[in-house]
Amino acid sequence: MASPPRSPQPAELEISRQSRILAALSKKVIDLDELRMLAAQGVPDGAGVRSTVWKLLLSYLPNDRALWEQELAKKRSQYEAFKDEFLTNTVGGNSAAGGSEGHGGGNAEHVENGFLDRSEIAQDDHPLSLGKTSEWNQFAEYSEIIEQVDRDVKRTHPDMHFFCGDSSFAKSNQDSLRNILIIFAKLNAGIRYVQGMNEILAPLFFVFRNDPDYKNSNFAEADSFFCFVELLSGLRDNFCQKLDNSAVGIRGTLSKLMQLLKKYDGELQHHLEITTEVNPQFYAFRWITLLLTQEFNFADTIHIWDTLLSDPDGPQETLLRICCAMLILVRKRLLAGDFTSNLKLLQSYPPTNIGHLLYVANKLQ
């Protein structure tokens, strides 16, 4: 009697998925729909696969492989121009921060070591002027941004030697994060820098900096900048303070999460919002604005991001499904809990099987 067919083991499935992704990446013109479908199930670690996949998913690389070299050279050159414009002192030629890749740091609009170049200031521009066009006012605002970026960068994943510590490698990585965030703030005056953006940048930079191909890892800063801009373009309404209370701002997004929960588990939604009065603002604000980077360990975050970045319409809808699945997976504890215990649980989400979480989230489509 023939024995029943053996189910493939997890390691075999991982190898199979990796071979399928490698095959998809080897095509002259990459089928992005196929790549998204494969990546949504998780990109295998190693061989620099994730670095390439994420760049494709974020439209940084064109799907025509023949254009990659030309496009990368153009973007990396453009980033160097941004650094020259926003980070390099125009008078002394020195930069305010060191770093890898000849990284300059920290000053734009003629700021060096906290001082504004007087030659750039109009004679009728008084230091106490509050006018938006005042060089003094812009300098003060910019100094505050640099200080906030500095504080946040130093707090980025303090448990990881990659980001934190006294090594020159960690310090150069911090410089790169700092450079990217300051340039972003200068180029996006409507948003500038919002606390927590460093946490969204960190996974991108980590993946690109760890690409085994030094031709890519050496340009992790430039590549991360453009992918960060693309990622935030679909999320910028969550960071725009003027839209906080609008339908497209963060409150509107939190409302969508509760509507989704009500659709799939009305009892849980009622218990959370009505019975125990646990406002989603208290826990899901962080989940959504920081793309779950603070709720799971770094490796699990990377896995979740494979799925988030695979959504052709941007990560928002997939993110809401994952957040909804997080609530459903702890429903028994939530239904048995009061305001205090439920808030504690959701503000410090318990360890969970990420594969199962993503499976449940996928079922909510």
From TrEMBL:
> InterPro entries attached here?
Rab-GAP-TBC_dom, Rab-GAP_TBC_sf
* A UniProt-annotated Pfam family: RabGAP-TBC
**Per the UniProt entry, what is one GO biological process?**
intracellular protein transport
Please provide, in alphabetical order, the Gene Ontology terms of the cellular component aspect for this entry.
cytoplasm
Q: Which SMART domains does the record associate with it? A: TBC (SM00164)
Q: Which GO terms describe its molecular function?
A: GTPase activator activity
The Rab-GAP TBC domain, residue ranges: 44-312
Reading the lineage from the top rank, the first entry is: Eukaryota
- Name this protein carries in UniProt: Rab-GAP TBC domain-containing protein
* Species, as recorded: Hordeum vulgare subsp. vulgare
What high-level taxonomic lineage is stated for the organism?
Answer: Eukaryota, Viridiplantae, Streptophyta, Embryophyta, Tracheophyta
